[in-house]
Fold this sequence. Notes:
The chain has helices at about 70-75, 80, 90-100, 120-140, 140-145, 180-185, 195-205, 220-235, 250-260, 275-285, 300-305, 325-335, 350-360, 405-420, 425-435, and strands spanning about 20-30, 35, 40, 45-55, 60-65, 155, 160, 210-215, 240-245, 265-270, 290, 310-315, 340, 390-395.
Amino acid sequence: MKQSEFDLTQDGRRKTGPTIREIHITPIAVVDPPLLNAAGLHAPYALRTIVELVTDDGISGISEIPGNSGIDAALAESRDLLIGKDVFQLNEIRRVLVNRFGTETAAQRGEAPWDQRKLVHIFSAIEVACLDIIGKVTGRPVVDLLGGKLRDRVPFSAYLFYKYEGAGGKLAFGIDPEAQGWAAARQASALNPAEIVAQAKAMCAEFGFQSIKLKGGVFDPRQEVDAMFALRDAFGPDVPLRIDPNALWTVETAIRYGRELEPILEYLEDPVRGQANMAQVRNALKTPLATNMCTTSFEDIPASIALSSEDIILSDHHFWGGLRASITLAGICETFGRGLSMHSNSHLGISLAAMVHLGAALPTLPYALDTHYPWQSDEVITAGRFHFEDGAVAVPQEPGLGVELDRKALAQLHQNYLDCGLTKRDDEVEMQKVQPGWGFRAVRW
Length: 445
Ligand SMILES: [Mg+2]
């Protein structure tokens, strides 16, 4: 810890905090298996962007956001607004970014399968890196900057995917014959209930997950509902189950299959599209509804409350504008009786560390959080891959995020980015390579 930052000026006030001197934006591509979802197929690489801030006194802070060349460019264009800013002045930093980008409403997302709003991504990247620096300066973990730790370990859920056989990366649809354990299982196909159960068993054996989620919206709902009952048969009534059809079902389909699933589901995630449709389904079912699609920003909250569109909001600090905004969301959920849990995209350990610090600070944590982490095999932090025990990750205790950038790995993953030619996520294009003519549909069944 550097003492100088807390020196007082002659008139007894604290000096300003460290200021941002450098901003490094590094797009990376991490190996990702051929996972199926409502929007199509994962490419052989998932894109992430690693952001590093360096202060005038040489302290480094890092963050990770979903990779998208448009957001990277906007972030680079924000340099002039950010260089020289005191890392403690997060309200001021957000204000200048709002002035540049405006507060984009969720409506601007439209039916796009994932969030590409600039302000929330950019502020999330800068805020998390600043909090990492503030933590290092004050000698406290990020969780303490969010009000302090309410739990030592943060539980995550198994996240199952229908998938084609294949490892992703250079192997794409090929298999690495040397792979063992989960690394072997993650290459296997999962296209029917029996293969989904096999995937779940291998993932839970490796990571110890105590809850299970299936990414649906891939096959006819009958097949996906059968997979849920197969999971129930395999794991028994003590393992909470969830399915996420990504809003591809009609209201009628959601009510029909939702009723059938009522005895076995912990919650049903985004069965239908839009708050009004979600409210209609919610009225017809006893099972709680969760969303990361119909209520995805603060602008959506008034209508969510008026319509009662969901029971649980799946937050995501990358999409809600940072960790402190997620704490604000937790307060709103508490006030209006919403549960709060966490959504995930393919990610590495810097995002996971931020999710764990946030998860440890939330007032309540009734549901195990989502994570794609088991599907990734690369890492960009010096400590290597995070360890899960009984499905949970221990909250880092070191100052800041508690993870450090592995510069050699960063360079290799950036080279992957340059070599793979991807600049944004497009699962529809990837799916068309396997099924020519396939097209995304916002509602399918
Ligand atoms: Mg979802």
